[in-house]
Specification:
With 329 residues, the protein is α/β, with parallel strands linked by helices. Helices cover 41% and strands 13% of the residues. It has a seven-stranded parallel beta sheet with strand order 3-2-1-4-5-6-8, with helices on both faces. α3 crosses α5 and α5 runs parallel beside α6. It is globular. The chain starts with a strand and ends with a helix.
């Protein structure tokens, strides 16, 4: 199968590309922005198996049209995610909105339009903390910020396109290699402090998301919205998540005052447990538990723990400067 993978060298893109390459059965064209980080990922992944590359900007309809030409399936992962989407709303609109529209329009012009698999997010469901979990794919979206508004608009654009589509709403798919991730940074740390400790979160290993996306190329998923979460063993609170994350990095849990304390239900976050029965039946992707993720995180962080463990108290105090909630307490 001829497959176009956009956002090919991002967190989920690179995991998906590796999954596809190991299958040794597809012709893959990777689309992404050319920069040193992406070039490094390209070099790493090219050692697995050969693939083609189209460097370009997803907001350029001409280069997108060239990439889409002759493809049988498009895995559209390219996106601007929080916190950058909230810091640069115009960029988020161009990439997430106009970029997705470019992909759809180019696909529609093909003699035989390819199936488009679009990665969205559980966050489009909005803050449902007061409602009993799990979230279901048939619930109406409740977008709350630049990112979720752009995702909901793109979902609508795709659904109304008249071509075969599948929408995958992804849960908390955190990178295993946090230092090598394009989504890691102190802005992300400040963002994460805004999530209350009692918030319900469903983690999903990026390798499992990659399996789901890769399987969706051939699975009978046309016209379906599917939720991608790790399953029962990945349904936790943010308190448990943050405690295990900081412990895995050798730092130890930061002061709880660093996190938002909700004054009422409106202060909770836009994530939750998910009903993944249908997605698991169709895509057969849930192969890792939360404990597997933590072990992989430790392995990727590796020797650095030798230094972070004894320096833990100092690092924890230093991290507090990125919490607006600690400063206000």
């Amino acid at each position: 199968m001829k497959i176009l993978l956009t956002g090919a060298f991002g967190n989920l893109g690179a995991s998906t590309l590796e999954n596809l390459l190991l299958r040794k059965k597809h012709e893959i064209l990777c689309f992404d922005m050319r920069n040193p980080r992406n070039e490094k990922e390209m070099e790493r992944l090219s050692r697995i198996e050969k693939f083609e590359i189209c460097w370009g900007d997803i907001t350029d309809p001409d280069i997108v049209a060239q990439a889409v030409e002759g493809q049988e399936c498009i895995l559209h992962l390219a996106a601007i995610i929080p916190p950058l989407s909230e810091q640069s709303p115009d960029l988020a609109h161009r990439v997430n909105g106009e970029g997705t529209h470019n992909v759809i329009e180019a696909a529609k012009r093909q003699e035989k339009p390819p199936k488009i698999v679009f990665t969205s997010s559980i966050t489009v469901h909005g803050n449902r903390f007061s409602e009993p979990p799990p979230r279901r794919a048939d619930e109406p979206p409740q977008p709350t910020d630049n990112y979720t508004h752009s995702k909901v608009a793109s979902e609508k654009d795709l659904i109304e396109s008249g071509i075969d589509w599948t929408i995958l709403r992804v849960g908390a798919a955190m990178p295993v290699d946090v230092l090598g991730s394009d989504s890691f940074g102190f802005g992300s740390l400040e963002y994460s402090f805004g999530i209350p400790l009692e918030q319900r979160i469903e983690v999903v290993h990026p390798a499992d998301v990659a399996t789901a996306i890769a399987n969706s190329t051939e699975a009978d998923t046309a016209g379906k919205i599917l939720l991608l979460g790790g399953g029962k063993n990945c349904q936790i609170t943010n308190r448990h998540l943050q405690t295990r994350l900081f412990e895995a990095l050798g730092i130890g849990m930061v002061c709880e005052k660093a996190f938002r304390v909700p004054k009422d239900e409106s202060d909770y976050w836009y994530t939750d447990f998910m009903d993944t029965e249908e997605s698991q039946r169709l895509l057969k992707f849930q192969n890792h538990t939360f404990e597997h993720y933590i072990e992989d995180l430790k392995r990727a962080f590796g020797w650095r723990r030798i230094f972070t463990k004894p320096l833990g108290p100092i690092i924890r105090r230093w991290l507090l400067r990125y919490s607006p909630y600690y400063k206000a307490s």
